Amino acid sequence: RILILDYGSQVTQLIARRVREAGVYCEIHPGDVDDAFIDDQPGLQGIILSGSHASAYSDDSMKVPAGVFKAGVPVLGICYGMQSMAMQLGGKVQWSDHREFGYAEVRARGHTRLLEGIEDFITTEGHGMLKVWMSHGDKVTKLPPGFKLMASTDSCPIAGMADEERGFYAVQFHPEVTHTIQGEAMLTRFVRNICGCTGDWNMPDYVSEAIERIRTQVGRDQVILGLSGGVDSSVAAALIHKAIGDQLTCVFVDHGLLRLNEAQQVMTTFADHFGMKVIHVDASAQFMGKLVGVADPEAKRKIIGKEFVEVFQVEAGKLSHARWLAQGTIYPDVIESAGAKTGKAAAIKSHHNVGGLPDTLNLKLLEPLRELFKDEVRKLGVALGLPPAMVYRHPFPGPGLGVRILGEVKHEYAELLRRADAIFIEELRKTVDPVSGKNWYDLTSQAFAVFLPVKSVGVMGDGRTYDYVVALRAVQTSDFMTADWAELPYSLLKKVSGRIINEVRGINRVTYDVSSKPPATIEWE
Ligand code: XMP
Q1: d(C-alpha 336, C-alpha 232), whole Å
Q2: Rounded CA separation 458/461 (Å)
Q3: Is 503 a catalytic residue?
Q4: Is 284 annotated among the ligand-binding residues?
Q5: Average pLDDT of span 227-238
Q6: What pLDDT digit, counting tens, does each position of 35-90 carry?
Q7: Is the CB of 446 under 6 A from ligand 1?
Q8: Are 2-194 and 203-391 equal in CATH topology?
Q9: 2-194: what fold?
Q10: Which residues constitute the catalytic centre (predicted)?
Q11: Which atom of ligand 1 lies closest to the CA of 446?
Q12: Which ipTM score applies to this complex?
């Protein structure tokens, strides 16, 4: 078991992720825990000290507890962690207000168990070199007694140091980011070879540990959870239910803007199959009522978000014995909301999801997925027995079809859009790309139909039609911040368009959206 002490770096979670990928269990705790906490860590095999934005010199920076270096286990310091280690063990750190960021080539010096044989290339003089991601202002200028130089660059002569006798290692660069090509190999080597962890920890183990944590946290209390049918809230629900059974009540608010048969699928999976307590609130009439005459995208988003909270609050009020509000917050949400708090991100769209419930509920927060990345959440979902089709589903925005029906939302439009969208998704799933052997649903990151409330003229049989237009949107992206439109095969587009026009009476024209993000966004509103 590895303990990661967090000094406030944006990428601390990535350390945890790499350690988990190496098959080793780890926990992240605040960097200023006391020595008693370090002493009371049964089964502890190693400690990793994260980076930080703070200077190891500043008074308000968190100090590494002295107990870390007396715990008798190997310690790896990263960036700030390295500087703290150097300062506390008798080395010197030079303060600087000038930070160096980005790619660097580091020369691995001497033979250490951490770096030996790990290199990206070898220079003509025979030096092993590493391509790394550096980010430092302060730097270590004198090695602490007992340490030897492990890595260096021109601008940072002490970029890595080690005292192998005591099992202390430190690097100025960040092995946890993928830009450091051998970073994963280094972290794996630290936790497995140096700390001696076996590397057989896996998702089923995570499930049992997470269940234990939830049980300890909530005891005999009742918990409520807003279930949306999306991946995160579904996985959170399945996990919490496994931990505390009927102490969990899910509230599923159907705003009438869901995809075809979605409400039914949610109820079948969670209530029928898993036997969970799910309150299905059909609030579609209420939502539709509030949206009458509203065409502005931001106004629609705000109404749907506010209404959602109100409906949820009413249901939560009925469960007066509940003490906890469970949410499917995952790690990228944690980073995103931290970014939103600093006000750095421009408000392009006001996002709404079930995570955005207010503090006024007076409930304690239970967020069992807080430290996981999306792909880990999916693996967890599969391990919990959720249907893979649900777990590997494309994302669906909180306001649902409300932002896929342009302008005013009407029940009639939603009905047409649901059917067109279902045809598109069905054909994407059915059509396999011969080169990759995968179907086009899995080859795209998000795909859906958009309803355009304009009419165009068509001809069907002998008659003239004057009907609505649907646009198809399919994108490929790794982070949803930028996206390319997917080059779907023409034959697939032809099939989808033919089926929609023939099967969905009221739509006589289908277009394909060939805009990338930026400058377009993925959703149309
Ligand atoms: P855009 O349209 O901004 O979308 O390029 C990026 C991703 O975010 C999703 N999205 C939302 N998700 N609540 C959500 O939970 C929302 O209000 C919301 N709006 C957009 C969108 O589907 C895409 O995956």
Answers
A1: 15
A2: 10
A3: no
A4: no
A5: 95
A6: 999 999 999 999 999 998 777 677 777 889 999 999 999 999 999 999 999 999 99
A7: yes
A8: yes
A9: Rossmann fold (3.40.50)
A10: 79, 174, 176
A11: 24
A12: 0.98
